[in-house]
Amino acid sequence: MLYYCSYIISFVANELRVPLMSFASDATLSSIQFPFFVRTVPSDLYQMEAVAAVVDYYQWKIVTAIYIDDDYGRNGIAALDDALTARRCKISYKIGFAANTRRSDLLNLLVTVSNMESRVIVLHTRAEQGFQLFSLANRLNMMGNGYVWIATDWLSSYLDANSSVPAEILYGMQGVLTLRAHIPKSMMKSNLVSKWGSLSKKYNHSDLHINAYGFYVYDSVWTVARALDAFFDDGGSISFSNDSRLHDETGGTLHLEAMSIFNMGNKMLDKIKHVNFTGASGQVKFDPQGELIHPAYDIINVIGNGVRTIGFWSNYTRLLSIVHPEDLYSKPPNTSLANQRLYDVIWPGQTSHKPRGWAFPFNAKELKIGVPNRFSFKEFVTKDNVTGSMKGYCVDVFTQALALLPYPVTYKFVPFGSGTENPHYDNLVQMVEDNEFDGAIGDIAITMNRTKAIDFTQPFIETGLVILAPVKKHITNSWAFLQPFTLEMCYTASLTSILTVQQLDTSIKGLDDLKSSDYPIGFQVGSFAEEYMVKELNISRSRLKALGSPEEYAENLKLGPKKGGVMAIVDERPYVELFLSNILQDCGCWLRFHQQRMGLCRPVYRNPSTVGEWRTAADPRQVAQDRATAHLTTLSLWTRTSSVLRASGACSSSVVWHVSSHCSFTFASCYADF
Fold first, then answer.
1. What pLDDT digit, counting tens, does each position of 623-644 carry?
2. What's the mean pLDDT in 394-408?
3. 1-188+287-350 CATH choice from 3.40.50.2300, 3.40.50.10140, 3.40.50.300, 3.90.1200.10
4. Shortest CA distance to 469 belongs to which of 532, 405, 519, 526?
5. Are 423 and 416 in contact, with CB atoms under 8 Å apart?
6. What is 363-674's CATH topology?
7. Which DSSP helix (H) or strand (E) runs through 489?
8. Could you tell me whether strands 439-445 and 667-673 are parallel, antiparallel, or unpaired per DSSP bridges?
9. Where do the Ionotropic glutamate receptor C-terminal domain residues begin and end (predicted)?
């Protein structure tokens, strides 16, 4: 009701042109909508920025939001949602409750939250309901190890204003983080606290303290006094007049027509906005939007019988720091994330070890990940016949990406193929699209047809279709230029005139030679190269010969087309490099004619609640982060073997010709859109 009244009063004050000094922190109230609205406390917009900064600082990516279902709660959580999104985090579950919700319903609410994946809970409510929730959370063992509770400033406001908080309340909130509007230390603040304590004991016979909002209220009175003084000094006067246009368009009972307009309201508003002094709450100065400058918050940890400040957040830098915000204002803002720091926290469960922020959901589904069971080139991916597990480079990339996630993904690998020959990858992709697999990992090429049905992660291997053909070596006599001369003759030449030339010769000079001949062409079993050559290059299928292993590659290249072999093999570059690095006695030349990459694939689900974890498990950002770090460098040591061998002369006859490509492919993991 309080925040509903704030809107009504703001509307009325705006119509009457009377400046409204408001203590409402609701982020949706602003001078843009109500020009005569002046907020004298920090907006919840900044408080939620501070909460999001804490979540991001500890590298949690999802939170659960519990809030009171009114304007204050809903608008605050909406601001939190925006702040988290800006930091690439999110609210995974929101649950609101009415102010008069029964205790049993609050208990059911917490049971629902306990079954969620996120263990980071943001509580945005009022003190009465907040303490009830903490009490019930203790009954459900939700205040122990693994949980993170972040309460907004309702908690610090209550604790600061009450000198004697019951021990059972504090005991039930151990490890909770909360925020407090930052009030700098000053003599004025100390004097006000002392004076307030004396008056409280004299008239109320109690020991009431002042919280942060008390300091803002005190300074608001002085703001109005200073503005009125400037207003009268500048010739202002208090006068009102009627306006026929002033009426209640909604037909309500406000009776605006009976009210009068403040004639010099704009001038008074201007004097308020130009107030600038140091009060009990710090510097009192407003920006052009009527908001206090330099909003900042203390980050507080509930420990033992009290609280401890572990750091600060300031809108000046938008970072967390252990340096008091007022000490930063005299310097240019340093917004480097490397400067962020908080003191150690005692978390729920009396532990100093940072909670991971998630747990396996109560009803989590295990993802079925299809993995090719290859017969050849097993370095990429295959099934271990001894342990039955899947292994290989692609599997290692997937597990490394999962290790970078801040929460778990449950999955199981399902071998695809018999292992006696390479499986057809189009069939694997079709099973992902048909929902038989939740995703797939492996050396899966990204073709145009496949991208229409499934999505792929960022690539992790540069590749492309190449032509592998045998070569013949012809060594020319580099001293042939001496034949016309006798030993008695003198010859002088520069060093560059003495050349040693090793010429390579192959019947395949380019893609046109491959297409125009009638000789057989080899391709790897299960590869998309077969359909590509038939449909895109118009090569007769009768010319194509399926080859199932590197040994068959070597044998068919050695035999040649006239003895039952092939004139060339069309395959993807990583396989060809691996073949050349292992089959050293028969080196060949290869011509790349299609740019391509390798990555991971997954479905894109329209219903993310079913297998939503896979969306993050194959998150392109995680694969990209792998590429940016040493993970893939370490994993791909074997891929450099071929380069080392060729550099040392073992495969010195390998040659690459670059030809413009017609389309783009990628080795990837896949995921489909339903």
1. 445 544 445 544 444 444 333 3
2. 82
3. 3.40.50.2300
4. 519
5. yes
6. D-Maltodextrin-Binding Protein; domain 2 (3.40.190)
7. none
8. antiparallel
9. 368-599
